Amino acid sequence: MSDIPAGKSPNYLIGAHVSTAGGVDNAPKNAYRIGANAFALFLKNQRRWFDKPYPPKKVEAFKRNLNSLGFLIDSVLPHGGYLINLCSPDPQKAEKSYLALKDEIERAHLLGLKYINFHPGAHLGKYTEREALEIIAERINRLIEETEQVVLVLETTAGQGSNLGYRFEHLAQIIELVEDKSRVGVCIDTCHIFAAGYDISTEKGYFQVFQEFEEVVGFKYLKGVHLNDSKTPLGSRKDRHAPLGEGYIGLTPFRLMMVDNRFEGIPLILETPEPHRWPQEIKLLREFSLLR
Ligand code: ZN
Ligand code: MN
Ligand code: MN
């Protein structure tokens, strides 16, 4: 365990995407154990469309563990399942995606959480980008109408295949079309934006890219960050996470982010590939945050 206990460094909410093996209530414990004061989790089996509802006891245990271990509600960023594609050109898959995401929103709400993070979608060559962005926004509007409170957090992508979200403009265009803007947000994935061509690997690049993010989307919509280095180069349009400092990005943006108050108070989540190294990665990030 890190020597800085969870909940003790509230300015920067740092954690990882932890396991829920054995039940959703284990996620806060798994996060605490690695020295995190933030975490991400899947709300159901991420490779299936649907899953059993939570036993009420598990919901109570989740809330109890979250509380007793000192996690803020804002520090938890659930991640949606992998099958969800809100702009699927296949009508059956589009409907399943809609219902699966709706179920995840309801699960987040049941657990007392504020966010659900997901990838905008892939048009599979059947729609233009503009058409797909409009379809996504329309379905988000309907999801917001049919559910309560939870903020739908769109993640930037590497732009692999026909995935949208590889330009900040894509997220901005969806937000523009969402009626209730209090229920939409964004999550920046450092590996994804770098692979999409945003060069955050140098100090100059870091400030330019986040200035551009402010102008195009706005930090007021930022609800989370996924902290990953990239196994593939700038603009490669591939989604391959590397441990911090061991990919093409390097430590520069992570060092800068931990003293940049635009990133204070929002969950900063490691999705790096070697979970046994998370305690060290979290410790390193905390050290960066104490440097100023
Ligand atoms: Zn993601
Ligand atoms: Mn991510
Ligand atoms: Mn990824």
Characteristic key phrases:
single chain; 292 residues; TIM Barrel; seven-stranded parallel sheet; two-stranded antiparallel ribbon; 9 helices; binds zinc ion; binds manganese (II) ion
Would you write up a description of this structure?
The chain is of the alpha/beta class. The protein has a single domain (13-289), classed as Divalent-metal-dependent TIM barrel enzymes (TIM Barrel, Alpha-Beta Barrel). Helices cover 37% and strands 13% of the residues. Strand 4, helix 5 (168-177) and strand 5 form a beta-alpha-beta unit. Helix 4 packs across helix 5 (168-177). The longest helix has 20 residues, at 91-110. The two termini are 24 Å apart. Mean pLDDT is 95; it is low at 1-9. Bound molecules: zinc ion and manganese (II) ion (2 copies). Zinc ion (ZN) binds at residues 79, 119, 155.
